[in-house]
Amino acid sequence: MSKKIERIEHVVMVCHGSDCKRGGARDIYCAAKQCTRQLGCNKATQIVRTRCLGFCKHGPIVCHQPSNTWLTDTDPQKVCEMLREKLEGPA
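The structure assignment produced for this chain is given below.
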């Protein structure tokens, strides 16, 4: 297994189905990338653009693994708050 893959601890899936794209998925994806860089967790976190996740009426949709946390009707700020909580841990 690749050393780069072995260090991945978190996966963030950002839906890029048509409804989510219209709702700002691109901005959410960019904010998630920027947030992980600011937290110094970008090498241990994989941000993935997905096809439709099937929850179109609740988009944009973001999912964090391994915590299985799902955000619906989200925006860049809510995603960064979730990432801070998951990547930094309890204060």
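Interim note for the steering committee: The mean pLDDT is 92. The longest strand covers residues 10-15.
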